[in-house]
Structure formats: structure tokens, C-alpha cells
Specification:
Length: 226
Amino acid sequence: MNNQGSGSGSVKEEASAIGDRVVGNVKDAYGAVTGNESVEREGEMQAAQGNQRQSQNRMLTGLFRDRESTEKAYQGLRDRGYSDNDINLMMSDKTRDTWFEGESQGDTALGSKALEGAGAGSAIGGTLGAIIGGIAAIGTSVLIPGLGLIVAGPIAAALAGAGAGGLTGGLVGALIGSGIPEERAKLYEEGINSGGAVVGVNARTDEDAEYFENHFRTNRGEHIYR
């Protein structure tokens, strides 16, 4: 098992970088709509800084079509020394309900992640303040209204902000807002809408990134982005 690096530090850095990008994009859009050039410029700079910081991380994501393969991929990340708060998860609320119907939080690691915060009013609103406030939702399960998308992990802030603000529109726009390339985002959208799930993590080392890529492929992962 590779425990190199601090899990909490990794999450905080990723969350902080994503937060800078989300808040920066919101300020940029808000400034453009209101004609406030100062806020717009400030937003552009903050978003650019967040993007640069996030690009230094080793983001790896993969699409899984069924619960069994998703469970194995998720557990493989935990077995490598990554905590639940390090792992990103995206699926539709319909998939969550289908896969974990009748189960309680804690039955499985994946189930706990997907069910975390369910029914607790964790949906993000559409106002500027709510979008920025949504960054505080990192580490909990968040439902983005209108998209029917469940997101959990450090990536939650970026997805919630993009989805709630309607800055780019739709599931593809929300995925792009999280740093996933457009071409891959469209493939993930199809997979999520077809009942699959996307699992991801920011690997702490190149060795971990290579290990996870092979692990995802072994467990029927598709469209693996690294």
C-alpha cells in the first residue's frame, strides 16, 4: 500500500484550486452581466490561478457501467491508501436509487459515498451566493437541480457551481467546469445518462496514477482520462 503524501492535504489543495476556479468563473460572469469590469477582471485572474494549480495535480477519471465494476474501482482507491474524501463520484440520482434501493448508508463504501447527505437538503441553489457557498459542500453528496446529478468528493464544488449557475449549461457544461475535456465530458454524459457512474481521484504520485489507470481498465473502466 502506498501512503505517500497527506490525504487531507491533497483534498484541501484540490478543493482550494477548484474553489478558486469556480468562484473566479462566477465573478467573471457576474461582472460581465452587471458591467462591473473590476469584478470581471478579478474573476478572470482568480479562475486562471485555480486552473494553473489544478493542472499540477494528477487527475484520473473513468466511466463504469454497472455497480459491481464501480464498487471494485472505488475499493481499489481505498486499498491504495486514499480516503473517501479523496475520491470523486458522479452518477445520476436515478442510478443511485436503483443501485442502492433499500440499503442504508454504511452497507458498502460506495453506497455510503453515494447516499451521503441524501434527503438532507443538499441541493445547491442558483444564486451567486449559493454557488460560492456550495464550495463548502466538499466531502458531502450534492444534488444539482435540473441535472439530476449526484456528485461527491473534492470535485463537488466545481460541478455544483457550474451546474447551479448555468454558466456553461447542462451536464456536459458541468463536467467541463470540473476540468474534464469537452470530448471526454460528452462520453461521460452518455454513460451517466445510461445508468453508469464516473469515479475519479487526484493521484498523489505518477506511480499511483499508473496503478489506478491499470486498475480501472481491469475492472471494465471506459474512457479513462489521465
